[in-house]
Write a structure and sequence with these properties.
This protein has about 290 residues and is α/β, with parallel strands linked by helices. The chain has ten helices and ten strands. It has helices spanning about 15-35, 50-65, 80-95, 110-115, 130-135, 145-155, 175-185, 200-205, 250-255, 265-290, and strands at about 40-45, 70-75, 100, 165-170, 190-195, 210-215, 230-235, 240, 245, 260.
């Protein structure tokens, strides 16, 4: 695990997340006072994947901090897809549950896209329902995936306008890479997306004004792959011997960059805080519709 760095160029995701959570906590109290509605979040975890179990636990801790009701639905690794969908349909109909999150990845026998299609769009606080993804594609962002939104929010915090900047995204998953690229396109950046089949990765990353890396390949990005004064977001996660590592060699790139998000402590805490914010927003919207 990388040592904690206090350099001002290192993005303090924990502090940014605390600021978001403080606003959410006030909003939750206000919603309860004015409308008698307590936001509710349900998580679904299939299997015993240790990192996923930790992520779900962190989300429930955050819910408790901000005053959101939360419940955790744990299903066995062998659970059939139909039963997962049945559970989602039940949660869709429960008025006290305003947000539904299915923890990814899911076991190989489950079609994640099919599962996500069954989450009611208004309760899709993780932003993976195709309808919410489609809205993002046409520039009408509602609930979007929380990690890419965390990146955008960090840019806003540091007064960095991506318009016209060269952005390179390494990794093209539906969770981070693709939505991050689309959200920055929506903000008029010039975006390139690299992946495992990209030839000469360094030629792409070395020209990026903003570099977003989400591959899960420990230490993939070294200093010679990064442009001077670049802004680098490390969103990669590799678990080894109970420790977490990122895709970027932080100490190696730090002398060159303008800003860099570390792993852990960078975009991760913001992802969870934004999930809380989405749950509050969902509760507000559903309380108006009821």
């Amino acid at each position: 695990m990388q040592q904690e760095v206090t350099d001002p160029r290192v993005i303090d995701g924990k502090k940014l997340a605390q600021d978001i959570e403080a606003k959410v906590k006030k909003g939750v109290a206000q919603l309860e006072k004015e409308r008698g509605v307590k936001p509710g979040l349900a998580t679904i975890l299939v299997g015993e994947h240790p990192p996923s179990k930790l992520y779900v636990k962190l989300k429930h801790w955050a819910s408790k901090r901000v005053g959101i009701y939360s419940e955790d639905h744990k299903l066995p690794e062998t659970e059939v897809q139909e039963e997962i969908i049945n559970l989602i349909e039940i949660l869709n109909k429960r008025p006290e549950i305003h947000g539904i999150l299915v923890q990814l990845p899911m076991p190989g026998h489950i079609d994640e896209r099919t599962v996500m299609m069954h989450i009611a769009p208004q309760k899709d606080v993780d932003g993976f329902n195709p309808l919410n993804m489609g809205r993002m594609f046409i520039g009408s962002e509602g609930f979007v995936p929380c990690t890419p939104e965390g990146i955008v929010r960090a840019l806003e915090h540091y007064d960095i306008d991506p318009r016209g900047k060269d952005v390179v995204v390494v990794g093209h998953s539906n969770v981070v890479g693709k939505p991050a690229a689309m959200m920055l396109l929506n903000r008029n950046a010039t975006v390139s997306v690299c992946h495992v089949f990209t030839k000469d990765l360094k030629s792409h990353t070395a020209r990026a004004d903003i570099l977003i890396v989400a591959t899960g390949v420990r230490g993939l990005i070294k200093a010679d792959m990064v442009k001077e004064e670049a802004i680098v977001f490390d969103v990669g996660i590799t678990w080894m011997d109970g420790k977490v590592y990122g895709d970027v060699e932080l100490e190696d790139v730090l002398p060159k960059v303008k800003l860099v998000s570390p792993v852990p402590g960078g975009v991760g805490p913001m992802t969870i805080a934004i999930l809380m914010e989405h749950t509050l927003s969902a509760a507000r919207m559903q309380s108006l519709d009821s």
